[in-house]
Design a protein that fits this description.
This protein is mainly β. Helices cover about 5% and strands about 65% of the residues. It has an 18-stranded antiparallel barrel. It is globular and about 80 Å long.
Length: about 400
């Protein structure tokens, strides 16, 4: 009964989105001057036939999400201010224990100083339900609220010339409400320095170093993880035709206490967008990440001796996302997206027994969006997905349908 009341309480929000769009349509087309503020009201409805992402416990669920969002985007001289605040009410038809109110606030500030300096600062706060398949334990359908806070700044010397040097600092904190997942609570700092070469107005390269230190206050196996990264990056953009960004990183990881084995490897990402003449545009994303998962625990034998067990898992994740969008008319667009991810895990016990695990994730989605009015957009999508089993992941297959209505005043 409580779940039904929650769903019914959200119906006025969905109706308000549609009514406001109709009432404001005349004003939206009036060509008023742009303002730095925007307001968005949105309603999302989703149906997933394998909500728990587990074939051994396959359940369906309907999720209703109502969103209110305000934004600021203002340029003043050499300064740019951006801010966004979003509140969401997420309600579940069957598992009302998961009902939650999400919060997402972020802002940034950029300014030019003197002739050649560029300074920027940013901050983020996010509070939301942790993704179901990322919950640990046999029961995934638990209310686990994830909170994330992040703040940082960067200083760049060289603005408009051939060379520039940039330094950055970032600090973030991640916490979970569920006791069984608090071992993943983390405080992280990142310091970086890079040199940028502007080959032209549309092409640049950079070479830099980053040190990322993560403290785990509630982890029984280790207290600190330090990553040393060397990044080689490039950005290329041809306005209206193509854009490309790519990064190749050499990463080395060490642990505290130091008797836990570290790891090193190559990571990288590539994102490419191509918009030729015609109605179809293309996007391609590729990423390769390496990671380490370490645990150390001791137990007493029947003879009274203490035995220490160390479990080392080295992970490699390779992901490819390809999409094509057809803008059929000025108001109607179709998008097809294909995602493929390969997970590899090399597991060893006490640095001697080694075993390899692997699995694949596939997802195909098709969506259609309709710009009903300048301020009102509608959309629906269908997705089929599958995940294989490995040492971390459960096997599951399923499909979902999502529809939304967005009304924006800007």
């Amino acid at each position: 009964m409580h779940a039904n009341r929650s769903i019914m309480s959200l119906r006025p929000v969905a109706a308000a989105v549609l009514c406001l769009g109709v009432l404001a349509s005349g004003q939206a087309m009036a060509g008023e001057d742009d303002t730095p503020l925007s307001l968005t009201l949105a309603q999302y409805l989703s149906r997933d036939n394998n909500f728990a992402k587990d074939d051994s416990f396959k359940v369906g669920e309907t999720i209703s999400t109502s969103i209110a969002q305000v934004g600021l985007n203002k340029s003043y001289g050499r300064q740019t201010y951006r801010a966004n605040a979003k509140l969401s009410a997420q309600r579940y038809k069957n598992y009302d224990i998961l009902n939650n109110d999400g919060k997402d606030v972020n802002g940034s500030f950029t300014t030019g100083l003197f002739r050649d300096w560029l300074v920027s600062a940013n901050g983020t706060y996010n509070e939301s339900l942790n993704t179901i398949q990322n919950n640990v334990g046999t029961n995934r359908l638990v209310r686990n609220i994830r909170k994330y806070r992040d703040g940082g700044f960067s200083v760049q010397y060289g603005n408009g010339g051939t060379w520039a040097i940039a330094g950055s600092y970032d600090a973030n904190r991640r916490t979970y409400s569920l006791d069984s997942q608090k071992y993943q609570n983390a405080n992280q700092t990142s310091k970086g320095l890079k040199v940028i070469y502007f080959a032209s107005d549309v092409l640049n390269y950079s070479l830099g170093m980053r040190r990322v230190v993560t403290d785990y206050p509630d982890n029984p196996s280790y207290s600190e993880v330090a990553d040393r990264n060397v990044d080689l990056s490039t950005n290329w953009q041809v306005k209206g035709l193509s854009n490309l960004s790519a990064t190749l990183t050499r990463r080395s990881t060490s642990y505290t206490p130091s008797d836990i084995a570290g790891n090193s490897g190559w990571t990288g990402s590539l994102n490419w967008g191509y918009t030729p003449q015609g109605i179809i545009s293309y996007n391609l994303g590729f990423s390769r990440t390496t990671g380490t998962d370490r645990s150390k625990f001791g137990f007493a034998t029947a003879g009274g001796d203490t035995v220490t067990v160390k479990n080392n898992n080295n992970t490699l994740t390779t992901s490819l996302v390809a999409s094509a969008r057809a803008q059929l008319t000025g108001k109607v667009g179709l998008t097809l997206t294909q995602t493929a991810t390969r997970f590899k895990v090399q597991s060893s016990l006490n640095d001697s027994i080694s075993k390899a695990y692997g699995s694949y994730y596939h997802a195909t989605s098709f969506s259609m969006d309709y710009q009903a009015l300048r301020s009102l957009s509608l959309g629906c999508s269908y997705q089929r997905y599958s995940q294989g089993a490995d040492v971390y992941r459960r096997k599951y297959t399923g499909n979902s349908v999502d529809c939304n209505a967005n009304f924006t005043i800007d």
